[in-house]
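Batch queue: ligand-bound targets. Current item pairs a single chain with glutathione. No template structures supplied; prediction is de novo from sequence plus SMILES. Inputs echoed for audit trail.
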Amino acid sequence: MKLYYFPGACPLATHIVLEWIGKPYETERLPPEQTKEPAYLALNPTGAVPTLVDGDFVLTQSAAILDYLGELHPEAKLVGDTPRARAETRRWLSMCNSDIHRTFGLLFAAPYFSGGDEAAGKVLAAKAAEKIKSFFAIANHQLKGRDWLTGQRSLADPYLFVLLMWADAKQIALPGMGDLRRFQKRMQADPGVQAALKAQGLA
Ligand SMILES: N[C@@H](CCC(=O)N[C@@H](CS)C(=O)NCC(=O)O)C(=O)O
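Prediction returned. Tokens below.
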């Protein structure tokens, strides 16, 4: 099984999950320009990471990849034991992937989305940061009295951790979100998280 990634990008969530599962895997670090070359586009036509290759099965899209790994390895207990527990995992995974990550996409690519209009780009970035904060406030509330988003460690936690790294890199202040910061510290202390960060040259 091989994971294609850029350091610190969304595939870090999958990388952490692979560490938590504890079975052999490979990674390939891609220079961003290589994701637009025909060989990689044949694997992932969106030209983005992550891509997971498992034998003859090529899978793209973070949420699908994480879900696949969770299904393949029920012993890692990262999905949930009941339909409701599994729905909770998918609820928070969707929030990370479809709400928070997507809004970071607007922030990171504000000049592109505003067509090179600098003032419009600044407004877009500021609005995206505001929306991101509101999503983190929801996650902070969810983490009150819980160590993990769903109450037990799941596929969603590494994704939230990566998004918090992006918030810090972009200096998005998250005042009063102590539960989120406690979650971040717990993740930073986790051996699987540390191994993935080290492998990506981030620790
Ligand atoms: N919907 C995709 C989004 C993937 C994505 O945004 N990947 C980013 C890194 S976090 C990327 O490769 N960006 C470079 C590009 O799209 O050119 C997923 O969930 O996997």
